[in-house]
Amino acid sequence: GLFAVEYALAQLWRSWGIEPMLVAGHSVGEYVAACVAGLFSLEDGLKLIAKRGELMQSLPAGGAMAAVFASPEVLARTLEAHAGSVSIAAHNGPENTVISGPAGAVGSILEELENRGIGSRRLNVSHAFHSALVEPILDAFEATAAKVSYQTPKIGIVSNLTGKTAAPSEMSNPAYWRRHARQPVAFL
Question: Tens digit of pLDDT per residue, the chain (188 long)?
Fold first, then answer.
């Protein structure tokens, strides 16, 4: 659904004569950005996002995500106690970090943070995206990404993995999209 709405909005803006010089998308939105930039076709983008959704839904339930109103540096000590289970899923702003992992561990962290006066908000998600809980599907997802026909982008794309404009070949490989599913979104 996110992919369809974002892609449709990009096409609407283009129909009004608004052409982007640079695109960025957050997590699933980066697939749309890649299509808009010409990195891969709409058909390949849909193939990737549909397979990602199918594989994510095949994972067991029990994951959780939460936005924590603190920097990753402030969270470091708390996350150390849950190393290997809870991950930083996104760094969205100076005081907005998303964590992801097993529901029990995420709940424990949120309770500890609340005791320290750090606010948070649980996110309504089906799975713990960008965490170790997605690792069982990464091989299958990379195999799908290997079937995509990559092109040189016509406009710049800001990478979710680096937060910087990607080099023309940086995102044109299956390994990038595998890392994209697991590593934190560097949106800030």
Answer: 999 999 999 999 999 999 999 999 999 999 999 999 999 999 999 999 999 999 999 998 899 999 999 999 889 888 988 888 999 999 999 999 999 999 999 999 999 999 999 999 999 999 999 999 999 999 999 999 999 999 999 999 999 999 999 998 999 999 999 999 999 999 99
Q: Give residue 65's Cα distance to chain centre.
A: 12
Is residue 156 within 8 Å of 165, Cβ to Cβ?
yes
Whether 101 contacts 64, CB under 8 Å = yes
CA distance 182 to 115: 29
Cα separation, 177 vs 172, whole angstroms = 9
The pTM of this model reads 0.91
Q: Tell me the residue length of the chain.
A: 188
Rounded to the nearest angstrom, the gap between the alpha carbon of residue 99 and the centroid of all alpha carbons in its chain is 12
Helix (H) or strand (E) holding 138, with range, is helix 138-145
The answer to whether residues 148 and 13 touch, using CB atoms and an 8 Å cutoff, is: no
Q: What is the dihedral of CA 87, 96, 21, 168, to 10 degrees?
A: -20
CA distance 112 to 169: 42
List phi, psi (to 5°) of 73.
-65, -40
Q: CB of 159 within 8 A of CB of 166?
A: yes
